[in-house]
Amino acid sequence: MNRIFTLLAFFILPFIVQAQQQPAIRGVVYDTASKHGLAYATVSIVNAKDSTLVTFTRADSTGKFKFGPLGKGKYLLSSSYVGFVPVWKPLNIETDGQLVEMGNIAMTDILSSGDVTVTARRPPVTISGDTVEFNTENFKTQPNAVVEDMLKKMPGITVDNDGTVRMNGQKINRVLVNGKEFFTGDPKMATKNLDADAVDKVQVFDKKSDRAEFTGVDDGQSEKTINLKLKKDRNHALFGKVSAAAGTESRWDGQTNINKFNGDQQLSFIGMANNTNRQGFSISDILNFTGELSRGMRSGGGGIVINTGGPGGDNNGLPVTGAGQNAQGVATTYAGGINFNDTWNKKTDFNASGMGSNIDLLTNRTTNRRFGFNGGGSDYEEERTSNTARNSRQQRVNMMIDSKIDSFNAIKFTPSFTTQQVDSRTTTSYLQQNLKGVKLSEGTTDNSTHSDAFNFGGTALFRKRFQKKGRTISSQVTLAYNDSKQDGSVNNLFRNYVGGVARPDSVVDQRNRREAVTRGFGANIVYTEPVGKKSLLEFSGFYNTNVGDAKRLTYDYGKSSGKYDQFNAAQSNDFKSDYSYGGGSLSFRSNQKMFNYTIGTTLQEAKLNSYNNTTGTAIRQSFTDALPSASLTYKIASSRSLSLNYSTSTTQPSTTQLQPVADVTDPTNTYIGNPNLKRSYAQSISLNYFSTNMYTQRNFFAFISASKTDNAITNSDSLVNTGGSNLRISSPVNVSGNYMLFGSINAGFPMKKLKSRLDIGIGTNFIHNNSFISGKPNVIENMSLSPNLTYNFYLEGKMDLNANARLNISKATYSAQPQINSNYLQQVYGFDMTNYLPWGLVLNNNFNYTVNSGRADGFNTSVGYWNASIAKSFMKNKRAEIKLTAFDILKQNQGISRNANQNYVEDTRYNVLQQYFTLGFTFSLNKAGNTANGARIVTRTIGG
């Protein structure tokens, strides 16, 4: 424990003991007409040579501003204020840390300028209300850079390794282009595909919900958003780029994005084809792809999964965005998409996007499992090797129509369609033996499936505001439909051993067909009534229903007929579930100057009716729940806040969990649903402290949350000895007393003299789950501690460096299975360095070193993964680029993961991409715009 406190102190103390810098540059921004200071004017400093932003701040309420010490050099100081002509002044620092008094900086109201032409540089940063606007000419990028590369250079904005963008540590959830959606659902589509050269301004703000934006009533729901405002010439232009690469080991990679914008009309196409595991799919794509969003995901319960060999995963055959070189398996991908935006009659916004993909994924795994069942002779180990070939195809269409009927009424439709086809074949060999090395069983499996699925989801949102401010009414209707079919074949050879002697082989040879249809409908109505000037009451009513039909038909091979015509009643089932809930809620919301709060409760009645058409049995359950909620946000200052949130919710069991049919695809592990499952009831509370200063670029976050679930759905596992071998049978049950604690602290600050930035964080979680093993209670506790550190160094025009280090310290304990308790540690150290060399050469090196310990023999690996590339731009305006890239230079890349599950701990080694080299070429179509260096000149004619 003392080591943990020491580690915490090491990460937190730097932020407590930081010395405050004395001001070195001071001045006052004032209005020439009123002779008063301009409160909260934006003041920026850029390098005189190339206009790159050095730092910026905001004046106080009297117009006074100050900066910390600057290094020796020539600079320009810019002051800006909405509605005033920008002012630029030279700033010469002859000695490091020199004190400079700028005196009064006079600014003139544009409307007071008369009939004159105003010519001025644009200010690097403009702040208007809660919106921060960066002008892109002050943030230099290399030729053919994408938006993501430019965002990394903007103060307060960081980009994670997987492409997630954050502003002052807060995640950006939405990226717009000229205020419109760009491939709805995945902000990385814009940041990773659009060229930085096409963007004129980057605007960062908190976007309110659709209902709040129209009604003007703050409902407390907002998301951090970036709007990319394109250069004027790109609003009526064709632009984009095409790239292709080929190399050793038969590796190839191609990508294109082409955009045709004509005012409000925006048409974009993106496409990719590669066998290098490069993907562009987000988590929401995965869920839509599989239909899980509409039908609910099956919960395993009783444990957590900790991936320690990279960010990849199976994810139904779709490696997610950022998986890349360390994804499980090797994928060949063909994917493309079209996005279209338009505005009709200035009242209706229309967006449509379509995507299609075809992915072939080959995965090889070697797994070592240690099972614990009450100790003694029941404990055993299992080694298995599997090979999977999976082809996944999907087609998805999203649409949005948002129409403002008049100034008081609006309606929005958002339909989505997805189709999916999957062909998969997995062959597996396995061996079970007890802890003394005596063989228990062995066998092989050969399972194949073909699946087809159709998924539809859609919402219609109606919003109305009245003459009286705060009085609104809105209603939303939601529809969901999923139809999936799967044909499968199972061929298993199982050999049992008794006393080390083999028994006759057991063979399973069957065909099965699964059909599942789920239909969902939901509707609500919300009415708000103002109470005074700053508060309101909200009344709502709602009703939701979800009906699921699941059928499984299994046929064994008939030796006499030579056909699969032997109906297997034990493994067949026709099941239906009908879950509905409705009720109403009442809440009170108050928005004060320093704080706002909401308190309310929902009364909900739920009914679950399940029918087993095979056995003719029915189960009916009903629940009445009070679901209170509360939130409080205290705005300590404009950049500091403390928030407290409490919520409750219920979750119904899925059709898979309810269906009482045995899944014997894996002959050593059988899963059987439980039609008697009840809904779960969860409570959660969180406390969040946020402090940031975009001018000094310092931030600090502290977060802690706790949740408790009653009637949680977990697995009850039992071990059946079949004469020597062990068969694990799992079935979902309800338990109470599950809870989870999570906390994190993150802080960051610049070190300007070193042209660097340091971000430090630590996260911890504790999960307490109740389960059953062989009929006995089994408490499983998982605890982890994850400190991390990131260091960034920028030497403009010469080098960019990102270095990081993180630890993953994990511990899993089992009350009924202490023999499989485990402690494991992962250390990851890495850096990414880009050097800008003479003759326009750009050299990049990316290196990660991962050390795994505490795992099974053969899985404690130390892996050094090094990629490097060198690129050269050429042709007019550097429209073309040629790049030589080397992947896995040390030829050490390998995938390792650990899974701490309910009754076993397993270590897995899986195949990943290994060493290869490519030569690539990129050609840009978007060099018609302003590509000159230096600050842009803005010319305005004032007056008549």
UniProtKB/TrEMBL annotation:
Signal peptide interval: 1-19
Keyword Plastid: no
Any Pfam family hit: CarboxypepD_reg
Annotated stretches, region: Disordered: 370-391
Domain Outer membrane protein beta-barrel: 464-770
InterPro entries named in the record: CarboxyPept-like_regulatory, OMP_b-brl_3
Keyword Signal: yes
Entry keywords, A to Z: Signal
Protein's recorded name: Outer membrane beta-barrel protein
Species, as recorded: Sediminibacterium roseum
